[in-house]
Amino acid sequence: MASVLIVNPQASGVSDEVVERVRAALPPGLETAAPGDASELARGREADADAIYILSGDGTYNEVVNGITGAVPLGFLPGGGTSVLPRALGLGRDPVAAARCLASARPRPLGLGRVNGRRFTFNAGVGLDAELVRRIDRRGRRDDGRRPGDLAFAREALGLLLERRGRFPDALEVEGAGRAAFALVANCAPYTYLGRIGLPVAPDASFDTGLDLVAPSNVRGRDLPRLGLAAVRGARPRGGLLVLHDRARIVLRCDGSLPLQADGEDLGDVTEAVFEAEPAAVTALVPR
């Protein structure tokens, strides 16, 4: 059996030099493949590989975990502009240093989330953050095929806040919990990163527990500083802010169609989103 390295050459941190240095740091005998359809590629190699390494951004990680059953160990190497998953697993931002760690890594069962049947690794959301993902996608890719980075995301976020004048009225119902303007669902902490800064929106979320939800209600301009502080320090239950921890199932019913994202990928508009925790769904390779 051999290990497989799946590479997304369009990820912002990937180059021919990086690929060669990563290959040199990992166990010998690797086969390298560009992602194409990473789900099908991972599914096809799951039975005959002793490990699958993925050098990419979060979108390709998502494709891989949606293509396998969980039997083969997965090594997530940071190759994207954000690469939330490997950083949340303690692998940092440097793909070569991460590869050296994974060369002598230990396996760890990793819980995932599902939304409407699709797996996600670190977060998903309905409403605001999904709208931001969609706006970034509408910008298209740069000449080298890569997505816009954090600066573009910040600009889109500011533009959306100005467009709405800081107002986000209630637009959905969290089953059994109440009304909310939008909802963020976390499978780990941090929820995401802004450059080097981790945003622990749901600070108690963990790969080893169920899903966490943070959902503010009836947001007005005066609420934005408090919500920004919660994003940096972590949200706690209080008036106007729903916080759920370690839930096996969370159901959202929208007043109308709202955008849905998972691991930073636009999944289209939905009127209902069913989130489910999937304990020990895959095996990840993590530093000893």
Overall strand count:
16
Beginning-to-end CA distance, first to last residue: 23 Å
CATH class of the largest domain: Mainly Beta
Instruction: Return the structural class.
Output: alpha+beta
CATH architecture of the largest domain: Sandwich
- Radius of gyration, rounded? 19 Å
Shape: globular
The run of helices and strands is EHEHEHEHHEEEHHEEEEEEHEEE
The residue ranges in which pLDDT falls below 50 over 5 or more consecutive positions are none
Question: What proportion of the residues form beta strands (DSSP E)?
Answer: 35-45%
Mean pLDDT: 92
What CATH calls the topology of the largest domain is Tumour Suppressor Smad4
What is the tally of helical segments?
8
Report the biggest beta sheet as strand number plus sense, adding barrel if it closes.
14 strands, mixed
Helix-residue proportion: 25-40%
Task: Describe this structure as you would to a colleague.
By secondary structure, the protein is an alpha+beta fold. It folds into 2 domains: 2-104, Rossmann fold, CATH 3.40.50.10330; 118-278, Tumour Suppressor Smad4 (Sandwich), CATH 2.60.200.40. The chain has helices spanning 16-25, 38-45, 58-65, 84-88, 95-102, 128-138, 150-163, 224-233, and strands at residues 2-7, 31-33, 49-56, 73-78, 106-115, 118-120, 123-126, 172-174, 178-180, 183-186, 192-194, 197-199, 211-216, 241-247, 249-262, 265-286. Strands 1, 2, 3, 4, 5, 6, 7, 8, 9, 10, 13, 14, 15 and 16 form a 14-stranded mixed β-sheet that branches. Strands 11-12 form a two-stranded antiparallel sheet.
